[in-house]
Specification:
421 residues, single chain
């Protein structure tokens, strides 16, 4: 702390702000010049050298007073006198607001300026660096996103929110063309051979069903047989033959990959897949089945249970120490690494960012500058004066100090020329 600051602190009991301190320094310097002028004027008769000091102090007072008037006239009337063209900022705050808004729009919010400023800016890389940093992007955004999800789920009306979610899901299912989707899935399964385990499981299940109902099959054959066959025992032999043939057929179908029954099943599946994709009649039947399922009360109960279970699990995960926040953070970190190292993704993200910001400047640039203008207009004159003076007042006081010193030097130069000539 300098001696002057210590003196000011002792006088005011606290450290003054920089602008006020510089104002006091400039004023003290002006008073010092006045004291020097009086002293040099008294001593000038004794020695001509004091004339240079008198000339310096005299010119310094003139320069300091002139710059004091100029600086003061920007913010208020000097000495409270209504001198024309003073208190410039308070008197013209509305025009200043409009000028500031026009300057902001012309130099910062035009589409051309925004596009040019963003041309060399790698938004994707900067965002990727932030997201990939576990101390900033991953942890803070991950936990924040998880907390936000929990807050939203807990604050909204559960009946309405659940109704909206279930209605949205039901609407999506109603609009879904189910038949072509099933047909394409079945076609892909056949092409990749993933249908074979299904066929084999179906055949094994058929064999198990036949074995479990063997008595029923025998009873049907006995009932259909005539009296002669039952009397001679041919019905039992016929039942044994039919059952043995069926068991053998099913076993061979499972073991032999090129079995005719297996090929027939595959052909039927391929035909079904083609019908699901291309047959309008099949489309209509599938849609009718879908409507029946959606109208069934059991489907509504399933939707209710699905929503409640999903909501409860999500809340437990994000509120009860689950790893939802960590999973979100890990996903964000992975996205950040991709944004940092994937050049193609960077090009796409940067292009989207430029187009978005240029669009914002085009659509809302006028609203932004209007907000600036209206905000400044709503300020009273004192507020405008205090804020501008607080921002640049310290530098303005340097004008007074410089004016005092430069004026004094000019006065010495003029006095020297006058003496020498």
């Amino acid at each position: 702390m300098t001696a002057l600051q210590a003196a000011l602190t002792a006088r005011t009991g606290r450290l003054v702000d920089p602008a006020r301190r510089m104002r006091l320094i400039a004023t003290i310097l002006l008073l010092l010049m006045a004291a020097l002028f009086l002293a040099a004027r008294q001593l000038e008769a004794q020695n001509a050298g004091w004339g240079y000091l008198r000339a310096f102090a005299e010119a310094a007072m003139v320069g300091g007073l002139a710059d004091w008037f100029a600086v003061t006239a920007l913010f208020r009337h000097p000495l409270g006198l209504p001198i024309p063209h003073t208190a410039i900022i308070p008197e013209n705050k509305d025009r200043i607001a409009d000028t500031m808004a026009a300057f902001l729009k012309a130099n910062f919010l035009t589409p051309q300026v925004v596009a040019r400023r963003l041309q060399g800016l790698n938004v994707a890389s900067a965002a990727g660096q932030y997201l990939a940093n576990p101390r900033t992007g991953e942890s803070r955004l991950g936990s924040g996103a998880a907390s936000l999800i929990a807050d939203v789920l807990e604050s909204l009306d559960q009946e309405k929110l659940g109704g909206l979610a279930k209605t949205a899901l039901r609407t999506r299912i109603e609009r879904l063309a189910l038949a072509p989707l099933l047909g394409n899935l079945l076609t892909a399964m056949i092409a990749e051979g993933r249908h074979m385990p299904l066929i084999e499981s179906l055949i094994r299940r058929s064999a198990e069903t036949l074995e479990a109902n063997e008595g029923l099959v025998r009873a049907i054959i006995h009932d259909r047989a005539n009296t002669l066959m039952r009397w001679t025992g041919l019905d039992e032999r016929l039942a044994n033959g039919i059952l043995d043939g069926l068991y053998k057929l099913l076993a061979e179908t499972v073991v032999i990959e090129d079995h005719p029954l297996r090929r027939k099943i595959e052909e039927s599946l391929a035909s079904l897949a083609d019908a699901l994709v291309h047959d309008p009649a099949m489309h209509a039947r599938v849609e009718a089945m879908k409507r029946d399922v959606l109208a069934n009360p059991a489907f509504a109960a399933w939707l209710d249970g699905l929503w409640e279970r999903g909501r409860a699990q999500l809340l437990r995960a994000v509120r009860g120490g689950g790893d939802a926040g960590g999973q979100i953070g890990a996903s964000l970190a992975e996205l950040g690494r991709a944004l940092q190292h994937d050049g193609r993704l960077q090009v796409l993200v940067n292009r989207f960012s430029r187009r978005t910001l240029v669009g914002v400047a085009t659509r809302y640039g006028g609203e932004i500058v209007r907000l600036v203008s209206e905000t400044v207009r709503r300020w009273d004159a004192r507020t405008v004066t205090d804020r501008i003076e607080g921002a640049v007042g310290r530098d303005l006081q340097f004008i007074r100090i410089n004016g005092t010193l430069v004026g004094g030097l000019v006065g010495v130069a003029i006095h020297a020329v006058d003496v020498l000539l």
